[in-house]
Inverse folding.
């Protein structure tokens, strides 16, 4: 949990519990799993126990809500960075019930529920067709395959906002099936976040993949947030040419030289610009 989160696209983070299980290629080098292990928490995998928290932990968002009220500004809360709220486990139901109550009690906070399991959302949330105005629902789409699987499931829910986390972005994604065609049974995409993978074992995100997402969002007036390049970044000059590797960018039809220089040095400029798009709050 963090009051002032280091994650660029949120104000705070809140975890109702720690622990999850891997479900798709985006999970391969999960930062949350690595962090949990680093602090001695064995909470990963389908049968592992989850780490729960006491009442003081659950009071923190109440304080954030009071501060937001005093400042007259809404705040975004990413829930949950160390778990998946919609993991299919009955032992999580008591914590979920507390979370629904907490969301109702904090009307000045916009709760960003990000999941890799959008198919189970409808059976878990208590709101059915009457969602709270402060709940944003998002799903991870790392490449076209997972966009095709998850977007039809995400976009059927009447959340206040629906957003995509294309991080780690592992391939080019065409959003046109959900942005260019009129589908009366699906809601709109309200926000796209893109970013590369961090860590020494990370996979590179190629410039063409990020640019095509940015350009699609621009054409469709969808706010676009470029979070980071990650461990790998495109390069033209280097003091260590042996570290540079060419990767075929199928979008731009060129070999792109990429260098593993670390998240901090790689930064978050895309074509010289910091892209900090975010939807207008309720």
């Amino acid at each position: 949990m963090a009051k002032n989160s280091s994650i660029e696209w949120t104000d705070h983070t809140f975890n109702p519990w720690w622990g999850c299980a891997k479900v798709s290629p985006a999970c391969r080098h999960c930062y949350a799993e690595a962090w949990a292990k680093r602090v001695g928490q064995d909470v990963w995998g389908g049968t592992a126990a989850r780490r729960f928290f006491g009442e003081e932990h659950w009071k923190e968002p109440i304080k954030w809500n009071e501060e937001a009220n005093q400042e007259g500004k809404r705040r975004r809360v990413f829930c949950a960075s160390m778990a998946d709220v919609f993991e299919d486990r009955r032992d999580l139901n008591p914590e979920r019930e507390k979370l629904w109550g907490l969301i109702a009690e904090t009307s000045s906070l916009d709760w960003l529920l990000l999941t890799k399991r959008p198919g189970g959302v409808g059976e878990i949330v208590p709101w059915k067709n009457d969602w709270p105005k402060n709940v944003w629902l998002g799903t991870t789409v790392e490449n076209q395959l997972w966009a095709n699987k998850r977007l039809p499931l995400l976009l059927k829910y009447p959340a206040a906002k629906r957003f995509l986390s294309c991080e780690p972005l592992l391939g080019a994604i065409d959003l046109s099936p959900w942005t260019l065609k009129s589908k009366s049974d699906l809601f709109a995409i309200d926000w796209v976040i893109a970013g590369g993978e961090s860590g020494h074992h990370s996979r590179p995100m190629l410039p063409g993949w990020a640019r095509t997402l940015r350009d699609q969002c621009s054409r469709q007036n969808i706010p676009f947030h470029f979070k980071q390049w990650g461990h790998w970044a495109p390069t033209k000059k280097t003091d260590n040419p042996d570290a540079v590797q060419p990767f075929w960018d199928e979008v731009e039809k060129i070999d792109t030289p990429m260098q593993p220089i670390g998240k901090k040095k790689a930064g978050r400029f895309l074509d010289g610009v910091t892209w900090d798009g975010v939807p207008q709050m309720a």
Summary: The mean pLDDT is 94.
